[in-house]
From TrEMBL:
It holds the Pfam family Aminotran_5. InterPro entries: Aminotrans_V_dom, Aminotrans_V_PyrdxlP_BS, Cys_dSase_SufS, Cysteine_dSase, PyrdxlP-dep_Trfase, PyrdxlP-dep_Trfase_major, PyrdxlP-dep_Trfase_small. It comes from Thalassovita mangrovi. PANTHER family: CYSTEINE DESULFURASE (PTHR43586), CYSTEINE DESULFURASE 1, CHLOROPLASTIC (PTHR43586:SF8). Coiled coil: none annotated. This is Cysteine desulfurase. The keyword Transcription does not apply. Residues 24-394 form the Aminotransferase class V domain. SUPFAM superfamilies: PLP-dependent transferases. Its EC number is 2.8.1.7. The keyword Methyltransferase does not apply. Catalyzes the removal of elemental sulfur and selenium atoms from L-cysteine, L-cystine, L-selenocysteine, and L-selenocystine to produce L-alanine. Catalyzes the removal of elemental sulfur atoms from cysteine to produce alanine. Seems to participate in the biosynthesis of the nitrogenase metalloclusters by providing the inorganic sulfur required for the Fe-S core formation. GO terms for biological process: cysteine metabolic process.
């Protein structure tokens, strides 16, 4: 049984007050809070087990290396990857996508080649491709969402031409919560010989993921949204694609031999992990993934589906609130504006006075904001520890804001 109150007790920050009110933390889409087991693992690692990995032969180095490398298998299990050697550690999704841009795309794309994106993409899945547009003349092709915020996979498939070299698509919009049928896109793209990169920053948080079933070539995740530390992350890279990639960063640990005249590289995935990594961050991410897998991703998804349904009912019942996007398949992420002159930042400030933490701004999704015709929204994003009572608190705070600005 999914006991949300027991789960909440695992997160010490949820017991605090903000502005004299119990904290209602609804900014999980930006970064999730950490359970005590993750905090304890980080403290243990720094206090009693810290050393650099891979390079040492002493006890602490071997211990740190074992704990660090064990996370590779945890990520593989979490993502359903066939082989842990298909997992590359990094600082998060931004670095993962940039690695694909520099290591895989840049060497094989030329002027006129196309990359297909949806208008919902986060800047982390836009800006690296703009680098290729600016520097190599690559063409970015955009696919719009419909009036509900849903993305028809067939529109993405129909955008493929002989010049398409990559599809880079989110599995779940960080603004609208829209869930994309990435498997349908991957199935069709594979038939046409087009690789697919999936931004799983939000998707992996809210639903079970199996990259083998999805059929993608790349799948990027970030640890701090998965109840782990910031500065942690990983990307799944299909072996066939990994063999096509050149190193992105050069330095220690990613080499086999270095001389004055030549360099030879380590085998993947080490080939793509230069320098001293985020050792403790990665260990913490592994503990966070254990925590989620112990709860069960299906159970988390079911709990959040209940929150999504209830929040939809409560928020759409406010006739002065404009909820952006109501796709039939979405995660518990809600962006909204308010009728009248109230700016998203002003709404967020009033909510904060009631202890309700939401995001306000463009959410690193400029093209989507343009498509929606707004400059900014407030966003309430729910996680595995949120409750229906917190949705009621959000609504009460919104009603106060409406009174003040109405």
């Amino acid at each position: 049984m999914y006991d949300v109150e027991k789960i909440r007790a695992d997160f010490p920050i949820l017991a605090r007050e903000v502005n004299g009110k119990p904290l209602t933390y609804l900014d999980n889409g930006a970064s999730a809070q950490k359970p005590q087991v993750v905090i304890d693992a980080i403290t243990q690692a720094y206090s009693h087990e810290y050393a650099n990995v891979h390079r040492g032969l002493h006890y602490l180095s071997n211990l740190a290396t074992d704990k660090y490398e064990a996370v590779r298998g945890k990520v593989a299990r979490f993502l359903g990857a066939p082989d842990e050697d298909e997992i590359v550690f990094n600082s998060g999704t931004t670095e993962g996508i940039n690695m694909v841009a520099y290591s895989w795309a840049m060497p094989r794309m030329q002027a006129g080649d196309e990359i297909i994106l949806s208008v919902m993409e986060h800047h982390a899945n836009i800006v690296p491709w703009h680098f290729l547009r600016e520097r190599q003349g690559v063409v970015l092709k955009w696919v719009d969402v419909d009036a509900t915020g849903a993305l028809d996979p067939q529109k993405v498939i129909d955008a493929i031409t002989p010049k398409t070299k990559l599809i880079a698509i989110t599995q779940c919009s960080n603004v609208l919560g829209t869930v994309v049928d990435v498997k349908a896109i991957c199935d069709a793209a594979r038939e046409k010989g087009v690789p697919v990169l999936v931004d799983g920053s939000q998707g992996a948080v809210h639903m079970p993921v199996n990259v083998k079933e999805i059929g993608c070539d790349f799948y990027a995740i970030t640890g701090h949204k998965l109840y782990g530390p910031s500065g942690s992350g990983a990307i799944y890279v299909r072996k066939e694609r990994m063999a096509e990639m050149r190193p992105f960063l050069g330095g220690g640990d990613m080499i086999r031999e270095v001389s004055k005249d030549a360099v030879s590289y380590a085998d993947p995935p080490m080939k793509f992990e230069a320098g001293t990594p985020g050792i403790v961050q990665t260990i913490g991410m592994g503990v966070a993934l254990d925590y989620m897998m112990d709860l069960g991703m299906e159970n988390i998804a079911a709990h959040e589906a209940g929150l999504c349904a209830y929040a939809t009912e409560r928020l759409t019942g406010l006739n002065w609130l404009n909820v952006q996007g109501n796709a039939s398949h979405k995660a518990a992420i809600f962006s909204f504006t308010m009728n009248g002159a109230a700016h998203a930042h002003d709404i967020s400030t009033i909510l904060d006075k009631k202890g309700v933490a939401v995001r306000a701004g463009h959410h690193c999704a400029g093209p989507l904001m343009d498509h929606l015709g707004v400059s900014a929204t407030c966003r309430a994003s729910f996680g595995l520890y949120n409750t229906k009572a917190e949705i009621d608190t959000l609504v009460e705070a919104l009603e106060l804001a409406h009174e003040l600005f109405g």
